[in-house]
Specification:
The protein is mostly helical and 402 residues long. The chain is built from 18 helices and no strands. Helix 5 packs antiparallel against helix 6 and helix 17 packs across helix 18.
């Protein structure tokens, strides 16, 4: 393995770990939700608010970190965000009531947002096209270890130290992230590129992005894909543990299997992109994801084997959708990659938060609301893709006629 390849993989590893710190605090936390409710005398829907609070701040504050990373460089906002995440994690561990926990989870989300938005901008600083898709999929390989290891680690920590141990563990993870950031990652936003970045230019960039139909369409397609996973994430502890009677360890294994499918298939992104082009890969993957999730919606809500099997299939193909939509959306916005990545991340998580709230409103202890939410998100992403393709063909035909 030559030096360039080694550097490529090392960069993917570091960026993936930094990206995973925030989600690690979600996935590791999931097996603890029922025990938190019992310990803090809170209803399930109130306990879920601690998850929603994290998502809200996680989504909104990406809009701040993106422009800051264009103005200050990529590393300074990462230091700020991960440091805040560590402090808030300590606050979560020491919380004695659900209101305090929700407040610190909100702060934790503010800090974790930096690790989500800035690594994508770093990928765009370094590469474009299929090479960027390769790096993005490798980043996601590391990122996807979180849904595999975090629930299992969380179950082990909870069994020995209770749910508070989860937050001490993510505090340690944050400090490891800070060490890697300071010793292993170089600044990719040169000072010359920062000169023209300001609050005014950030607002202008947001206006440009919000008027770019291609960027918005690709962002919402990816966001609906992510929403289908996050609806599962928010509801699965109660469905699989309380409704189907799985133990926290069995639940963690079931949750992890879907992540294995996701990141394994995602590693084919670069090869398939070279062979067929990223747009065709995205379309094919979305079609297959939608087909699997329709089965989940139609049959999986009352049959655990069907639910587990088709979620495994659907989330595998989703592993192709997320990196391709991200790379294609950022392709034309290299000069404002931080701001574009921020808006993309915010729209992803706002879309997911809306889907989670709607599914939560219909939650009745069974798998039906969760399965319906997952299926409808996949169908909406598929329809949006088909409408986009139809419009693109019209535009191409008009251009050819001229």
């Amino acid at each position: 393995m030559n030096t360039m390849t080694t550097s490529f993989f090392r960069t993917a590893l570091i960026l993936g770990l930094l990206s995973a710190i925030g989600p690690f605090a979600i996935d590791m936390y999931l097996p603890a939700l029922p025990s938190i409710g019992k310990d803090l005398s809170a209803e399930n829907n109130v306990v879920q608010m601690s998850l929603l609070a994290f998502f809200i701040s996680f989504a909104i504050f990406q809009l701040i970190y993106g422009p800051l990373s264009d103005m200050w460089g990529r590393k300074a906002p990462l230091y700020m965000g991960i440091g805040l995440f560590a402090v808030a994690s300590v606050g979560c561990a020491l919380s004695n009531d659900i209101e305090t926990l929700i407040a610190f989870r909100f702060l934790q989300g503010i800090g974790g947002a930096a690790g989500m938005v800035i690594p994508r901008a770093i990928v765009r600083d370094m590469h474009t096209g299929v090479q960027a898709a390769r790096l993005m999929s490798l980043l996601m390989l590391v990122f996807s270890i979180s849904p595999i290891l975090a629930p299992l680690t969380g179950s082990a920590v909870i069994s020995f130290y209770g749910w508070r141990g989860v937050f001490w563990a993510v505090t340690i993870a944050a400090f490891i992230g800070l060490i890697l950031l300071s010793t292993q990652l170089k600044e990719t936003r040169p000072k010359a590129a920062r000169v023209e970045s300001s609050l005014g230019s950030a607002m202008a960039a947001y206006r440009l992005l919000l008027s770019d139909r291609n960027f918005l369409t690709l962002t919402f397609i990816g966001g609906l894909g992510i929403s289908s996973f996050l609806v599962y994430l928010a509801n699965s502890p109660f469905v699989l543990i309380d409704h189907y009677g799985l133990t926290p360890t069995q639940y963690s294994i079931a949750f992890s299997i879907n992540a294995v499918s996701f990141f394994t298939v995602s590693q084919l992104t670069g090869w398939l992109g070279d062979r067929f082009g990223l747009v065709r890969v995205m379309r094919m993957a979305l079609t297959l994801t939608m087909a699997a999730m329709v089965v989940v919606m139609a049959l999986g809500f009352n049959q655990l084997p069907v639910l587990a099997t088709f979620l495994f299939i659907g989330y595998g193909f989703l592993g192709l959708v997320i990196p391709t939509t991200a790379v294609l959306a950022l392709e034309d916005h290299g000069e404002i990659a931080g701001t574009a990545s921020a808006l993309m991340g915010t729209l992803h998580f706002v879309t997911a938060a809306v889907a989670m709230v709607i599914a939560g409103l219909f939650f009745n202890g069974t798998a039906l609301p969760m399965a319906a939410g997952i299926g409808l998100c996949a169908v909406a992403a598929f329809i949006l893709t088909q409408l986009t393709i139809a419009r693109r063909r019209v535009v191409e035909a008009e251009a050819a006629a001229e």
